[in-house]
């Protein structure tokens, strides 16, 4: 009773598409994807900064 079936999710998806439109949803998706990529780059840069310290300790 507490979980939604596939039909419920399809109806919700249809309503969201009707309200926002496909172009706006595509723009939102690309914005979120870009933000995730920038976050991953920042995390990798942060990891890269700690490695030179470890290497200098070994010498």
TrEMBL record:
* Location (main, coarse): membrane
The record, for InterPro entries, names: TatA/B/E (IPR003369), TatA/E (IPR006312)
| Localization | Cell membrane
Its keywords, alphabetically, are: Cell inner membrane, Cell membrane, Membrane, Protein transport, Translocation, Transmembrane, Transmembrane helix, Transport
Q: Which PANTHER family match?
A: SEC-INDEPENDENT PROTEIN TRANSLOCASE PROTEIN TATA (PTHR42982:SF1)
Known HAMAP family for this protein? Answer: TatA_E (MF_00236)
Summarizing the function annotation, the protein's role is:
Part of the twin-arginine translocation (Tat) system that transports large folded proteins containing a characteristic twin-arginine motif in their signal peptide across membranes. TatA could form the protein-conducting channel of the Tat system.
On assembly, the entry states:
The Tat system comprises two distinct complexes: a TatABC complex, containing multiple copies of TatA, TatB and TatC subunits, and a separate TatA complex, containing only TatA subunits. Substrates initially bind to the TatABC complex, which probably triggers association of the separate TatA complex to form the active translocon.
Its name, as the record gives it, is Sec-independent protein translocase protein TatA
Q: Which gene encodes it?
A: tatA
